[in-house]
Design brief:
With 191 residues, the chain is α/β, with parallel strands linked by helices. It folds into 2 domains: 79 residues, Double Stranded RNA Binding Domain (2-Layer Sandwich), CATH 3.30.160.70; 80 residues, Arc Repressor Mutant, subunit A, CATH 1.10.10. Helices cover 34% and strands 14% of the residues. The protein contains 6 helices and 6 strands. The strands form 2 sheets. The chain has a 4-stranded mixed beta sheet, with helices on both faces. It has a two-stranded parallel sheet with strand order 5-6. Strand 1 and strand 2 form a beta hairpin. Helix 4 packs across helix 5. The radius of gyration is 16 Å and the shape is globular.
Length: 191
C-alpha cells in the first residue's frame, strides 16, 4: 500500500482527540486518499486535487486528530465499495460518513446524498430543496467544500442551463463519473 506524504504541519497535534487513518485507493480515474476514524469515513479526495492539503487541515481541525498511514476497517470497506461502484455493481454506498462543518454545509451535503445515482440536479435545485432559492452561490461554495468525493455526489451537480460546472476532481473526471452512472459511453451532452 502506498503511503501518503503528510505535511509537517499536519503530522500530529499534542493530545489528539482521535486518529484519522489514511489509505491510498486506486480507482480508474486516478488515486484517491481515503481518511477514516474508527467509525466513519471523513475524507475521500483525488490525490492530485490542489485543495487536498486544505481539506486535510480542515479534517485535522474538525476532528482534533492525528493522521496515521494505516488502513482500518472503514478504509477497507470504502476501498471495496468504490471498486463495486466503478464495476457498476453498487449505486449506493453503505459506509458510515462523518462530515462536520457549519450547519449550512451539513444541510447541503445531506441534500447531495439525496441526488439519485444516474441523475443530476442544479445548484438552484439544491437551494430550493433547502428552502432558499437565493442561496445558489452559497450552495455552490458548500458543494465545492465537500471533503468526501463520489460518496457525497457533488459530481451530480450541473448548471441550471445544463452546462458542466466546476468539480474539485476536474471536469474530465466529472464527465466520466456521470457517464459511468448514466450508462452513456462518452458523455458529451454538456459541452
Amino acid at each position: 500500500m502506498k503511503h501518503v506524504e503528510i505535511p509537517d504541519d499536519l503530522a500530529g497535534i499534542q493530545k489528539p482527540d482521535t486518529t484519522v487513518y489514511l489509505q491510498w485507493v486506486e480507482t480508474p480515474l486516478g488515486p484517491m486518499l481515503c481518511g477514516a476514524t474508527e467509525h466513519a469515513i471523513c475524507l475521500l479526495e483525488f490525490t492530485d486535487r490542489p485543495l487536498l492539503p486544505t481539506q486535510m487541515a480542515r479534517v485535522q481541525k474538525r476532528f482534533h486528530c492525528r493522521f496515521e498511514n494505516i488502513a482500518n476497517a472503514m478504509t477497507e470497506q470504502l476501498r471495496i465499495e468504490l471498486s463495486e461502484y466503478f464495476a457498476k455493481t453498487r449505486e449506493r454506498f453503505s459506509v458510515q460518513l462523518d462530515f462536520p462543518g457549519t450547519d449550512f454545509h451539513k444541510r447541503v451535503w445531506t441534500a447531495l446524498l439525496d441526488v439519485p445515482y444516474g441523475k443530476t440536479a442544479s445548484y438552484l435545485d439544491l437551494a430550493q430543496t433547502l428552502g432558499d432559492p437565493n442561496a445558489v452561490r452559497a450552495v455552490a461554495r458548500a458543494n465545492g467544500d465537500n471533503r468526501i468525493a463520489i460518496i457525497i455526489p457533488c459530481h451530480r451537480i450541473i448548471g441550471s442551463d445544463g452546462s458542466m460546472t466546476g468539480y474539485g476532481g476536474g471536469i474530465p473526471r466529472k464527465k466520466k463519473l456521470l457517464a459511468l452512472e448514466t450508462g452513456i459511453r462518452e458523455l458529451t451532452l454538456f459541452e
